[in-house]
Predict the structure.
Amino acid sequence: MVEIKNLTKVYDGHKAVDDLSITVEDGQVYGFLGPNGAGKSTTMNIMTGCLAATSGTVTINGFDILRQPKEAKACIGYLPELPPVYPDMTPREYLAFVCGLKGIKGDEVKSEIDRVAAMTKIEDHLDRLIRHLSKGYRQRVGIAQAILGKPKLIILDEPTVGLDPKQIIEIRELIRELGGEHTVILSSHILSEISSVCDKIMIIRRGKLVACDTPEGLSRATLNDITLDITAEGDADELAEAVRAVEGVQSVTSKASDSDAGCAELTVTYPYDLDLRREVSKALGAENALIISMREARLSLEDIFLELTEQKAAEDVDGEGEDENEGNI
């Protein structure tokens, strides 16, 4: 659906995007993450044809955004961070105007406006001036214009900015629904939002791709080992000895539980590419130990983001040596 090859954008000698190559598959929701100044907005502006690249190519549904801009842009719905709405229009007038820009004509205009208004829940505000709408509803109007015409690719830059908690939940549900019929690229600083709605996550730093995988894949890639926290009935030392005998277990620490009388608390570690929960459970069962709780510790997206970007930052510092001309983007 979307293929970015060797994309580079240089400003005043500094590379905002540095030889970036990404393939975005159809029908999935992609999260686009990176520290401030990583090149996210520059990349999205190039993808949508709002900015020219220094070198490299972007193809949307087979169309080159530079050589075939009309065909490529017809496949894109875009919501920038600041919704491109006109305050002296009503949402109905504005959406009709956008329909004209997208080549939607005749009776289809009304049906399209009704469709996107229902999806974004702005039906009761279609005939109010946009200037009189709250920031949250202006954001909804911006999302509505992006999905007019059912574009194959929808790019959303901070789509929940300014929304209240209830509205945020509704927009997240809408994004998940869009992912069933469209390809969605979502940029957000709210990492929990990315984690809750995205099938895959792309992370860039200083214009380079650091990682692109599912949330589970990123977690596996950044974990050195798994930690299993267990509370079970029995003697702490005896249970720890039984678990240590499980093949693959690296270490076990144990203590008597402070909150559950007659119980032990165990912390078990093993390599990330193993799943020893079943084997550990069997070992405890052989000791007639009733397992009260068992929890596998997993990295949050925040942990993964920091791990990947800080690791890359350290590699960059090591690689730069004494080159004082290297600037920060």
In short: The first strand starts at residue 2 and ends at 11. The two ends are 29 Å apart (CA to CA). The chain is about 35% helix and 30% strand. Confidence is low (pLDDT under 50) at residues 320-329.
